Amino acid sequence: MNLLIVESPSKAKTIEKYLGKGWRVVASVGHVRDLVPESGSVDTEHEFKPKWQIMPGKEKQLKLITDELKKADNIYLASDPDREGEAIAWHINDILKARKVLKGKNVYRVAFHEITKNAVIEALKNPREIDNNLVDAYLVRRILDYLIGFGISPLLWKRNLGKSAGRVQSVAVKLVVDREKEIESFKAKEYWSVAANCYFNKIEFDANLINYNGKKIEKMTIENKSMVDEIVSNISTPTIGKISNIEKKKVQRHAAAPFTTSTLQQEAARKLRFSSKRTMATAQKLYESGFITYMRTDATNLSIEAVNEIREYITKEYGDKFLPKTPNVYVTKSKNAQEAHEAIRPTHFLNLQTNLSGDELKLFDLIWKRTIACQMTNAEFDSVSVDIEVKNSLFHCVGTTRTFDGFMKVYIEDTDDTEDDNNVKLPILNIGDNIEIKSLKTEQHWTQPPARFTEASLVKKLEELGIGRPSTYATIMSTIVDRKYVEQDKQHRFHPTTAGWVLVSYLSNYFKDLVDVNFTAKTEDTLDDVSNGTKDKLSSLKSFWNPTKETIESVRNIKTSDIIDNINKFMNFHLFKENGDKCPKCGGVLGIKLSKFGAFIGCNNYPKCDYTMKLSDTPDTPENQEKTDEIKEKDLGENIFFKIGKFGPYVTDGSKNVSAKKYNFETITLDIAKELLSGEKKKVEPIIIGKNPVNDKPIYYYSDGRYGPYISCNRVNVSVKEQPLLDEAIDLINNKKTFVKRGK
After folding, report:
1. What is the C-alpha to C-alpha distance for residues 67 and 71, in angstroms, rounded to an integer?
2. CA-based nearest residue to 260, from 80, 463, 3, 93
């Protein structure tokens, strides 16, 4: 008999069906062994020798493997085809060796990137040895993470500075904090735009002012209303303008590359509002069920077989016009993509039948469209730019018309899959044509601070900086939230909590390398070099740990008062803005204080002065702080305005005011304002997540509950932050505590 060991039970069931008699497929259920969670589990004095233990609950799986091993002649270790998967295979092999149960057995390592019958059988025909370079890279990563955790975290606990510090998570938190500092220090600047309302051959269109009195008009040129009034007065409408220049050109747009782990998480966040964790959990299910290829990859190439099948499908469904003469080729942008072999794609394209639903159907549809589109022809556009002379001014407009859909027939990146509605429609024009200028449209604008990170944009930033790898992005996102270093507002944007501010201020002062993006990226490169065999494990560990150890020792005896002083310098503007840090009770200096219950603001004259103030982690969301000192209102058109009042944002038409707390100056539109003023609210239909196996009733997700999103099944309601996965929803519904009102 042959024994095949994989990571997950669902994958084991799928593969056992493919292999049939003579095969037994069992699951390790992920990692089975880890470092002992106590100080001293890595002996830094003796070549970083680790001390391992069987993970809680995994002895049962190892007993199952051992029992099946007794009946087998050949053992195939088929954990996932990446660094962590190689480590799992190595751990299992090492444990079985130590227990002396491999005598007379043949042990092979196999790896496949899709769970299809052909892929599995082909992998079994080509077994290999365990890749010791990949294992060494895993050991360096795991040992470094352990040493940082047990080296720096106790310093945090001792002074109530935080829960933990991590090699990658701390950099992610610092990026969020640094962005918040940019936002807080941002000063909005006023500027105006002027557009001509043009009319020709019964077609109306707008053209923007680009030159006035011989001076080029750029974004910030018109600084205030007095300058606008001068322009409007001098041009004086209605008037006649003349076409002075026309440029016509053909424009093509290329399809986006097939998904990598990073781009899948980004696009699922944008289009489906999925968190990184939710995306990866759903992708894992699709992979294990045989619907997609391996979901942890940073490569954008596709196999020849897949490309041929995609091209056959495009010809059949859309015709030759949508098929390029040669396959589209995408170059992997990631510096180190050696662990990945193919982009994320469906395993089959022809005669595909699925019984997917819920999250799995949504994500599969996204992957399907992106993969098909990447092998289609370019979208084509006609672009016409026109210059219109009006007195001593020049106006400019561009009209773009899509003339051929190409890949856009199937998929458009980072937008809803709908036709473009924002293109300016221009009449047929010729040089010398007279254009009627009915009026001038003027609009006040304010420069905007940089946007807070969403999961999508933070993952993108980490990838750009070379920090983290496909297997770690989702974990990074969930870790910084779970440890309450960051929170997300209603727009799903990250803002740092007080705990996040304190952690970053401490690490920035005393462990600069740990939160330095270049240093962290260099460490990731070192791990890749170990994977490639160009660097060895021991020298890599020493080069990182030795200077870090020295820093830990030097920081250990720094006075807590000195640490707090440095934290206060780092956080002063965040805590007090322009209001100053003077104590209102005694005139002393206010600053952050630390306790086991969290941070708070107190007076430096304590205990003589007992003044304290709570710190709030409420995000500076649009409804409570949107630079209202500088920005008071926005003209939406049709005499409707968006304003910030004493009780928050609202819209008004002069006779009626309606609260608009969900919106800010960037997100509010005229249509939304009209909807709010009319009192009409579009009903959001509930989403069926799946069926509850306990009562066979559907579980619904409501995104617009009175108290926020919630799920419901058979009159049992549970509040949630976002749409949960089916397993999570079943658990929440069936384990909800029932509260009974007691009589007197």
Report:
1. 8
2. 463
Provide the annotated active-site residues: 294
Residue type, 25: V
Domain boundaries, the chain: 2-130, 190-254+379-446, 261-373, 633-678, 687-734
What is the Cα–Cα distance from 589 to 264, expressed in whole angstroms? Answer: 49
Given a contact cutoff of 8 angstroms between Cβ atoms, the answer to whether 470 and 296 are in contact is yes
CATH topology of domain 261-373: Topoisomerase I; domain 4 (1.10.290)
Looking at residue 351, its amino acid is N
What is the C-alpha separation between 589 and 123, in angstroms, rounded? 69
- The structure tokens 């600084």 sit at 223
List the one residue out of 6, 3, 48, 12 whose CA is nearest residue 30: 6
Tell me the pLDDT tens digit for each residue of 678-726.
775 555 678 888 777 777 788 888 877 767 788 998 888 888 877 787 7
CB-count burial class (<10 Å; 0-12, 13-18, 19+) for 320: exposed
Element (H, E) at 478: helix 473-482
Give CA–CA dist 181/184, Å, rounded.
5
In order, the DSSP letters of 397-425 are: EEEEEEEE-GGGGT--TTS-SS-------
| DSSP three-state, residue 93 | helix
Three-state DSSP at 217 gives: coil
Three-state DSSP class for 42?
strand
CATH number of 2-130: 3.40.50.140
SS3 470: coil
The predicted model scores a pTM of 0.74
What's the pLDDT tens digit per position in 48-81?
999 999 988 888 889 999 999 999 999 999 998 8
According to DSSP, the residues that pair with 486 across neighbouring strands are 496
Please give the CATH number for the structural domain made up of 190-254+379-446. Answer: 2.70.20.10
Among 299, 279, 471, 304, which residue's Cα sits nearest to residue 367? Answer: 279
The CA distances from residue 694 to 710, 713, 720, in Å, are 19, 11, 20
Enumerate residues 6+ apart whose C-beta is below 8 A from 362: 272
